[in-house]
Every structure is written in structure tokens, then in C-alpha cells.
Design brief:
Two copies of one chain form a homodimer.
Chain A (H helix, E strand, L loop, with lengths): L3 E11 L7 H8 L3 E5 L2 H6 L1 H11 L4 E4 L8 H13 L4 E6 L1 H14 L7 H4 L10 E5 L11 E6 L4 E6 L7 E4 L9 H19 L7 H23 L4 H13 L14 H13 L3 H16 L4 H11 L8 H18 L6 H4 L6 H8 L13 H12 L4
Parallel strand pairs in A: 1-8, 2-3, 2-4, 4-5, 5-8
Antiparallel strand pairs in A: 6-7
Helix pairs in contact in A: 1-3, 4-5, 7-8, 7-9, 7-11, 8-9, 10-11, 10-15, 11-13, 11-16, 12-13, 15-16
Chain lengths: 390, 390
């Protein structure tokens, strides 16, 4: 086990009806409040009115910036920063899923930074401070509600980059699983895939003797596998929605990589996919992860055997390589069973820009930690992912 | 799943050599520092000198209060509070295990409270503020380093009571597993039992549909079972010490009871044992838990079957009752295998004061949540625990 530091100060307020507390929580952070959201779905569901009423009941001055899209855009972030400065905004409230939260974090950190916010994403600077951010979560997926991450897309040139800094972790996250019930099944499956991918990136480490975090990862994966299947079968069933929502936070709040070095290779490759093709992040991950596994499994066969036997209950008595491959196959079959694409064709992505994506993925040098992936390796994984069958 | 709130702001600094950072961390909390410890073992190991040097290198003014004993005493807490007030102490540093940390928390909260600190333990008041507390942990057991709990014994009348309040959670915890290597095997086993007991109190809930936390609990139990066996076999082996130390914190920092109501019946009964007989807390728990399980298992047979099959790998094809009983038997056999007593005789406790303990245990009304235990039920569990064989 490696030395580590861990702290997660976000206050989680979890359960039915909790969105009514947003006004009181935001008042603690101080106004005026920038209310940031994606517009349409929260207006349809009535959540928008509910949040606004709660904020107004606390006498908070409000400014609004809607229109966040999946793969949130740098241009909107810049607009938000300008608003914050002009109106002396005291805190930012994100109402939505990972895209809205990531965008809110970028705005909040950018507003108190003298330079250009994009510096935080290109690695030129690290956010040391931020306006306080509160969250009302509507979607179980990115885990951004308690994480230190934000991923933003610069639509000029379609660069999709991440910033990771404790300063941007939300102060509180209101998480009512009922709010996620109106999502279309495809989005539910994308979200569950994203949660699983966050765990898998951490699980596939080359660090030995990390038994506790291994088992916590496996526990989270098994929970998500069962819960998403139930959630898709009955969208109004509260219990699996609650499991998914809490699992989404735990998958990405830093706990599961304490003492180990996570991989992140597949995420980095996916960012190149979704930067160009603007696909849903979870679907992009589904289309890549089995191919990544297939490409790297021999580098740590023991870990892939453990994954197969503990997560997928593969009989451990077979040849290790056969056991490992069966685990990967079950992961892939599971993704198919929840309606995810498991190859680029399923995502609607043609094979003509693989070279370009592999090149762009090298922006900061080789990817991943379980296996270091150079341009050729990334290209090989993309080619695997472009095949219908291996 | 129940609605819940969760926040754990303690900064964990984990790994080899981390105790050298204590001075810099305490400087952030502000001096003068009250250095609180148990005296002998940290002086023998050299940790005392190392901590003092680190504090002095930061120019921190120091005041010292040693002499904390297992089942920490109210009289020493009162002495500490007086010192804090007289010397305008700015922060408290606990160097040791759960007893030292619990005592430091009591001092830190009592120092800023106008009334009597014992009010926090009798339920007359709740700590709303506290001097900041830092920790250098030497023992994997109580989980006090990141918890909101403190347990103190009033030696006049031998009342052992708990206080739980977010205000007393330590600001930081330095956790170097190497520091736990010099413990005698009996203390290592007591610590592991305490960790498992913290998980079991949460695991045995009557709340349905708490799959994620169930699985996280099982993950933690399986890790501790394997790690303590390895740690006892080779005291200098770092990996199992690291697993135990991190598991000890996670077992008791609130994560594992999110969304569920924990039991705490066995802990409450144990407090009556150790208040009178001053036994090690972990050993007291080992002597009681199997009997508690045996007494209550029919009230939630499904949960005991799950415990047997997932934690102890009992074959699930048998009759549910037989499967549940086999799980309890394996838990008991495991405790025996690590040198723990599993009955009161093994603890050296005679059977002549069971009635008195059962009466005192009713101080705040019936115990536990899986099954509400009145005086007669507590007495029945104590009688079971007094038998050598069931």
C-alpha cells in the first residue's frame, strides 16, 4: 500500500425530499447565488421551480445561467465567470448532473483566478481557491457532486480536458434518488457505466497488497451491477436508484484509490472520442473498456483473475488466462444487457479518425498506469474497439 | 435505504514515516499545544521524542498531560480541561490509541464548555464546539481518529458512557502502520475484534435494501479477518498492518452506516463489563458478540444467512437456520483462533454480578435496534456469555 492523504469534506444530504433544504444550505454559503443548470429537464420536472422557491424563501439574490450541455463547453464557463465578477456572486449552485456540476466548478474557480480558467485544464495552473459550490444532483453517474474533478470541452479544436483539485470540491451535495427516476433508460445505463468505469480505473492498479480497497471496489461494482438491472426493469423503484446514487459518489470521491495508483487510460482515450463526436461519456466508456481490458490483461493476469472470480463469480478452477478472459466477456455481455454499445460502430463512430484521436491522446505523454500506453498502443485499442467481434 | 447526512472532514495522512509531519500540522491548528498520551509505550518506542522534536522545530509552546489508561478516566479529563483553561491552550494533540484520543476529545470539548464535561456523556448537553484535535495513531482498533465518538469512564461509580458529536471529530489523523508493529499479539487481536465489532454493529440492521453498505461492510470484515491473521503470524509485515489501520478508521467514521440504523446493543452491554472489570474493550466485545448473535439471529434470519454466506463462505444450500448458525460458529471459532476469549470465563469475569450489569445497562432504556433488549434480554445474553458451551 502506498502512502496517501485523504480528506472529503463535502456534506452529503441524501434521501427523499431533501431538495427543499437547498435554500437554507445556500444561505450558509452566502449570496448572491449563481444558479447554474441545463434548462429543459429540470424545468419539465418541476425541480427548477422548487429550487427557486427554496432560494427565494431565504431571501437570496439570484442570477441564472442555464444551457449547460453534455460535455460542458468552455465558452459557457467563460460567460459564467464574467457574470460572477460583474455581479459579485458569492456562491454557485449546480442543479443537474455531472456536466452542470463540472461547469459550475470551473466557473467558481475561474471567478477568483486572475488568469484564464483554461490554465487549470491544460496544467498551466492549479486552482488554489474557489467560490463555494453547492449541488442538487439529478443523475447518478459522474460522481462530480463530491469529487475534486471537473472536465470541460474547449469547442474550438474540441479539446476535452480535466482539472483535479481539492479547492473545487463542492461544499454540500443534496442527493435525492427520486430526482433520477425520470431519466430515459439509455441515460440510466450510461450513468451506471460511468460509475463502474470510475471504479475500474482504480481497481486496475499494479499496486500489490491493497486488499481493503480491492474489496471495497468489488463491493461497489457488484452493487451497481444489480442496481442498474433493477432500475431499468422498474424506473419507479426507489431502492436501486438510491444504491446507484450513493455508489456514484463513493466511486469517485477518492476513497477507492487510497493507497494505490489508479489507471485512467480508458478515460483519457474516451475524452478524445467524445471531444470529436460529442457522444455520452458513459457510452464512450462502454465502447472502450472491454477493448482496453482485452489489450492489457496479460500485464497483470492475477488482478484480472481476481476481477473475474470476485466480481463476476467466474469459477476459479480454470486456467488463469481463460478465467480472466471469461471475466472480460461477462463485463462486455453485461454492458450489452443494459443497452450499452461495446464497440465504436455501436456508438455510431466510423473508423476514419482513429489515427487523429491516438495522436491527440498523446498531448501530455503516454496514458495509463497498469500499462503505459503510447500512441501505437492507443491506436491498437481503438482498432480493437472498432471491431464488431474480437 | 433511510435518508441520511454524511460528512467526514478529518484529513488522513497515511503511511510510513508520516509522524514527522505532526509539527507542521499542529502549527496550522495553533498553539500552545496540549500533548496528551499514555506515557510508557510511546516513550519506549521513541515516538515521544520524535513527536516532541517535530513540535519544537515548529516553535510550538507545549504542555504535557500523560497517564491515559485503557477505559480513560473522567478525573484525568477534568485535569486536562483545567490545564487548557489555565494555560490558554490552542489545540490538543493525542498520541496513542483510542483511549488517548477519546480522552483528548473530551478535554478539547470540555475546555470550551461552561458546564461540566460529563454532561456530554449523560446526554444532558451536546458539544457544539471544541478546541481543534490532532492525532498521531499508534493502534488499529477504536477508529476514534476519524470518528465523532468518545467513551469515558467515571471511576466514581464506574459508569462508562459515550458522547457522539461532529464537533469532536479530529481535524487530522497521522496514521503510520509501522507504529502499530510493536504491540503485543493480544492487543493486536483486541484491536481487530474492536474493528470487526464496529462493522457488525452497523451490519446487523433491520433496514432492508441497503445493498451497497452491506457489501462495503462485508468487504471490510473479510479484509480484517485475513489481515489480523497475517499480522499475528508476522508482526513486522507492513501490508496487513496497513489494512488493519485503514479498516479501523473506515469501520467507525460513519460511512458504513449511511442509510441504515446501526444496532450498538453489544457495545452497550460491553461498556457495563469493562466499567466494572476494566477489561480490554476488544476482548469484552469478543466475549459477548457470539452470544448476542446467538440470542437475536431468528429476528432477522435472512441477514444472518447473508453474513454466513458472504463473510464466512458458508455453503448457501443448507437450511437457512443451519446456515446462520454455522456463520455464528465460524465467527466464534475465528475469535478463538486469534486468541480472544469468547465467554466471560475466558475474560476472567465471574458470574456473580450479571444482574447488576443488566440493571445498569438499562440506564437510558432498552438497548439495540435489530432487537430491542430490555433488562431480561440483556441478562439472558450475559447468561449465554457466561456458559463455556452453548
Amino acid at each position: 500500500m502506498r502512502n496517501f492523504e485523504y480528506q472529503n469534506g463535502t456534506r452529503v444530504i441524501f434521501g427523499k425530499g431533501t431538495q427543499t433544504r437547498v435554500g437554507a444550505e445556500m444561505r450558509k454559503l452566502g449570496g448572491p447565488v449563481l444558479l447554474h443548470h441545463g434548462s429543459s429537464s429540470i424545468k419539465r420536472s418541476g425541480l427548477y421551480d422548487e429550487v427557486k422557491a427554496s432560494l427565494e424563501a431565504e431571501g437570496l439574490e439570484l442570477l441564472e445561467l442555464g444551457g449547460v450541455k453534455p460535455n460542458p463547453r468552455l465558452s459557457l464557463v467563460r460567460q459564467g465567470i464574467e457574470l460572477c465578477r460583474k455581479h459579485k456572486i458569492g456562491s454557485v449552485l449546480a442543479v443537474g448532473g455531472g456536466s452542470v456540476i463540472d461547469s459550475a466548478k470551473a466557473i467558481a474557480a475561474g471567478a477568483v483566478y486572475a488568469g484564464d480558467v483554461w490554465d487549470f485544464y491544460t496544467g498551466k495552473a492549479q486552482p488554489a481557491a474557489s467560490l463555494p459550490v453547492g449541488v442538487v444532483l439529478t443523475l447518478s453517474a459522474a460522481g462530480s457532486e463530491t469529487s475534486i474533478s471537473s472536465v470541460i470541452t474547449d469547442e474550438e479544436g474540441w479539446h476535452k480536458l480535466a482539472c483535479n483539485a481539492p479547492a473545487i470540491r463542492p461544499v454540500f451535495a443534496i442527493m435525492n434518488p427520486e430526482l433520477s427516476m425520470s431519466l430515459p433508460p439509455y441515460q440510466v445505463a450510461c450513468g451506471a457505466t460511468d460509475i463502474m468505469a470510475h471504479v475500474l480505473e482504480r481497481y486496475f492498479t499494479s499496486e500489490a497488497e491493497v486488499d481493503l480497497t480491492d474489496r471495497l471496489c468489488e463491493a461497489t461494482l457488484k452493487t451497481v451491477i444489480a442496481a442498474v438491472t433493477r432500475a431499468l426493469a422498474d424506473p419507479r423503484d426507489y431502492a436501486p436508484r438510491a444504491e446507484l446514487m450513493w455508489a456514484g459518489s463513493l466511486a469517485h470521491n477518492g476513497l477507492l484509490d487510497t493507497g494505490r495508483l489508479a489507471d485512467w487510460g480508458t478515460h483519457r482515450i474516451e475524452h478524445e472520442l467524445s471531444a470529436i463526436y460529442d457522444v455520452a461519456h458513459g457510452a464512450g466508456l462502454a465502447a472502450l473498456f472491454p477493448s482496453w481490458m482485452r489489450f492489457v490483461y496479460k500485464a497483470n493476469l492475477g488482478r484480472f483473475v481476481q476481477f473475474a472470480t470476485r466480481v463476476w463469480d467466474v469459477d476459479s478452477s480454470g486456467q488463469p488466462e481463460a478465467v480472466a478472459l471469461e471475466g472480460i466477456k461477462r463485463m462486455r455481455d453485461f454492458l450489452v444487457s443494459i443497452g450499452m454499445p461495446v464497440d465504436l460502430g455501436g456508438l455510431g463512430i466510423p473508423g476514419d479518425r482513429l489515427e487523429e484521436m491516438a495522436t491527440k491522446a498523446m498531448r501530455f505523454g503516454p496514458l495509463g498506469n497498469l500499462v503505459k500506453l503510447g500512441r501505437e498502443e492507443v491506436l491498437a485499442i481503438l482498432h480493437l474497439a472498432a471491431q464488431k467481434d474480437w
